[in-house]
């Protein structure tokens, strides 16, 4: 049973939950990969390789901004379950930052 309400008048629901979930999966994959990659590059940045602030901005935008974007898209598409899954991705930065510093992967 779907958690989405039926349409008024007994018509067919024209929303495409599969397409929305594919987009959200892509956004989640980008958040899961670009966040740690940008953070690691920020920790290892030197004067010749680029600014650390630029890499930390990319990491923050990917790790926090993309889950919020996914939650907004899912909310507009009226998919509460997908929106909650997107919001749970906000715990990911705590996990990868802690792991990077715990295992001294940053340099």
Task: Give a verbal description of the structure.
This protein has helices spanning about 15-45, 50-75, 80-90, 90-100. The chain is mostly helical and about 110 residues long. Helix 1 runs antiparallel to helix 2 (about 50-75), helix 1 runs parallel beside helix 4 (about 90-100) and helix 2 packs antiparallel against helix 3 (about 80-90). The protein starts with 16 loop residues before the first helix and ends in a 5-residue tail after the last helix. Keywords: Membrane, Transmembrane, Transmembrane helix.
Key terms:
107 residues; mainly alpha; 4 helices; transmembrane
Number of domains: 1
Number of DSSP strands? 0
- Would you identify the regions where 5 or more consecutive residues have pLDDT less than 50? none
Mean pLDDT, all residues:
85
Series of H and E elements: HHHH
Q: What about the largest sheet?
A: none
Strand content: under 5%
Q: What's the Cα radius of gyration? A: 18 Å
Helical percentage = 55-70%
How far apart, in Å, are the first and last alpha carbons?
Answer: 50 Å
Shape: elongated
Helix- and strand-based class?
mainly alpha
Total helical segments: 4
Transmembrane segments: 20-40, 52-76, 82-103
Keywords: Membrane, Transmembrane, Transmembrane helix
């Amino acid at each position: 049973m779907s958690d989405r309400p039926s349409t008024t008048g007994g018509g067919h629901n024209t929303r495409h939950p599969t397409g929305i979930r594919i987009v959200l999966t892509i956004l989640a994959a980008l958040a899961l990969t670009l966040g740690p990659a940008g953070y690691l590059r920020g920790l290892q940045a030197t004067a010749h390789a680029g600014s650390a602030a630029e890499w930390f901005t990319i990491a923050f935008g990917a790790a926090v901004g993309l889950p919020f974007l996914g939650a907004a898209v899912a909310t507009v598409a009226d998919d509460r379950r997908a929106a909650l899954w997107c919001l749970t991705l906000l715990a990911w930065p705590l996990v990868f930052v802690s792991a990077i510093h715990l295992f001294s992967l940053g340099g």
